[in-house]
Amino acid sequence: MKLNVLDVTLRDGSHSVRHSFTVEQVRAAAKGLNASGVPYFEVSHGDGLGGSSLQYGLSKTDELKLIEAAVSECTTSQVSVLLLPGIGTKEDLQSAASLGVKMARIATHVTEADIGAQHIELARSLGLKTVGFLMMSHMAPVEKIVEQAKLFESYGAEIVYVTDSAGAMLPKDVTERISALRQALQCEIGFHAHNNLSMALANTIAAIKAGATYVDGSMRALGAGAGNTQTEVMAAVLERLGYETGIDLYNLIDTANDVIAPLMQQPQEITGSSLILGYAGVYSSFLLHAQNAAEQFGIDERDILMKVGEMKAVGGQEDLIYEVAQNLASKREVVP
Amino acid sequence: MKKCKVGIIGSGNIGTDLMYKIERSPYLEMSVMIGIDPDSDGLKRAAKRGYKTISNGIDGLMDQLDLVDIVYDATSAYAHKRHSELLTAANKKVIDLTPAAIGPFTVPPVNLREHIDQPNVNMVTCGGQATIPIIHAIHRVVPVDYAEIVATIASKSAGPGTRANIDEFTRTTAKAIEMVGGAKKGKAIIILNPAEPPIIMRDAIHVLVEEQGHEEAISKSIHEMVATVQKYVPGYQLKSEPIFDGNKVSVFIEVNGAADYLPAYAGNLDIMTAAAVQVGNEMALHLQQKEGVL
């Protein structure tokens, strides 16, 4: 059976390197991914097109320059971009499309699919492979996910993703959600994991068994929080399980070793805080912001993340972190 | 003093909320609610309160123009274009609550009187009304190179118009951050949060200032501005003291609504409609003064 692996190192990994990817790094990674036969890979700011901001982190290099460099290295691989309506706009998508991008993934919080209708319609009209990406899928019950996925399909999405942005799901949660979508939808289904509870690969396999045909990974797991499913490990495991990915394992491992390992700013491991992200169900890219805020206000970053989880924050609400940190610090001061 | 007669086009969340606020204005008199769905909650409420209602949209209003001096448009950017052309040609004042931005942007604590004699003024967006006063408060102390706002609102408070045209929010807000707030470059982000009970509207404002070292003056200016906004939106408040980090200033605010139509969490609705009433009041005064001169 054929599976489509989509590598997100150059998008989700952007969080891990604080949005500092350079044209040279992207070019080298793109060349390796293309040579390894990875069918799709994504390039954008970590928070999608237009994500460069004080709220999420400013891009060191304009993402359109990075996308252009990536596209120029591709002979077989196709470049994808992520867009979060409310952050990026239709103009951003048009600019990316004009550079030769072939896939657009329109991402909304799991209950808010309708804010992506126009962007999905635009992506289709631009001839892009179009994906609806339901973020923080752990926060909604199965019926709600089905309802929202159907909306995406009705706007024209060709693939709908269940996205475990907080790395909070366990394999049974994945099986339940993907199976329900498989029954309810005509279009293809994808799965995007984070490894905060060390479940990324197990969840990915559960997704495939339940009917997902698109799966995300990142080299060296480079991504927000504890990172994603590690692409090169996933490729090896999928081959052992008897699935066809078309990926040349050695080439991919070489790219991970020679291009990605040297640019990593910290080991992509499950730290105490990234574990808390999964445990409390918090958006993975909050991690480094919580670390900064904890340092600035002299408090425990785990306390910030637990509180943010209690407040049911959704993706993009990084500003809450600083406010929570300041409040925690001021409460501590009044305690005798 | 004779009050100015007001019409509201658009019987959705914003238009209905606006109706209740106009009832409290000393200068404005609620006259007619115009919608396109006779069964809409807004039209029913207006009729029940004794106002004229029109359920065939702008065309119905054009037959009874003597009902209005000032018309608020709370429909959509797309529909507003035609409404504005028809109404301004008939010499009616138009206050635009859609992101159409045909007329100049008005944010009351910054430029309430600047465009008061224009035929059409635009109220930017809810996020713009909540954040541009703060950007201006910083800018009047030290020039702002860049300003960015992140508005987080309860999913329930975002109607179908907002949802279908979310790019218009970011585009219009960013433009007004520059034109009214004074920032050299502006950016806007909007996030919808579905949590239950619904979250209160909150806004983060991140600004890069031209030079460091004005922390005390900036804080003072922000606090003064918050007090100014509170005069028409009492639930507008700082969530914490401004955070300074090099030349970056971050301000967090929360907007509790007056719960006229939607509950208090929908501060995004209130700040828009309350600001629009401020503009209407000022316009009414201006119209009366003009008549007085004549």
Keywords, separated by commas or semicolons:
heterodimer; A: 336 residues; alpha/beta; TIM Barrel; Helicase, Ruva Protein, domain 3; 2 domains; eight-stranded parallel beta barrel; 46% helix; B: 294 residues; Rossmann fold; Dihydrodipicolinate Reductase, domain 2; six-stranded parallel sheet; six-stranded mixed sheet; 10 helices; 12 strands; globular; acetaldehyde dehydrogenase (acetylating) activity (chain B); aromatic hydrocarbons catabolism (chain B); EC 1.2.1.10 (chain B); NAD (chain B); Semialdehyde_DH_NAD-bd (chain B)
As laid out across the biggest beta sheet of chain B, the strand order is: 3-2-1-4-5-6
| CATH class bucket of the largest domain in chain B | Alpha Beta
Number of helices of chain B: 10
Mean of residue pLDDT values of chain A: 96
Low-confidence region ranges of chain A: none
What do the pLDDT scores of chain B average to?
94
Q: Could you state the order of secondary-structure elements of chain B as H and E?
A: EHEHEHEHEHEHEHHEEHEEEH
Instruction: Return the CATH topology of the largest domain in chain B.
Output: Rossmann fold
CATH superfamily of the largest domain in chain A: Aldolase class I
Taking the alpha carbons of the first and last residues of chain A, their distance comes to 64 Å
CATH superfamily name of the largest domain in chain B?
NAD(P)-binding Rossmann-like Domain
The oligomeric status of these chains comes to heterodimer
CATH fold naming of the largest domain in chain A: TIM Barrel
Overall, the morphology of chain A is: globular
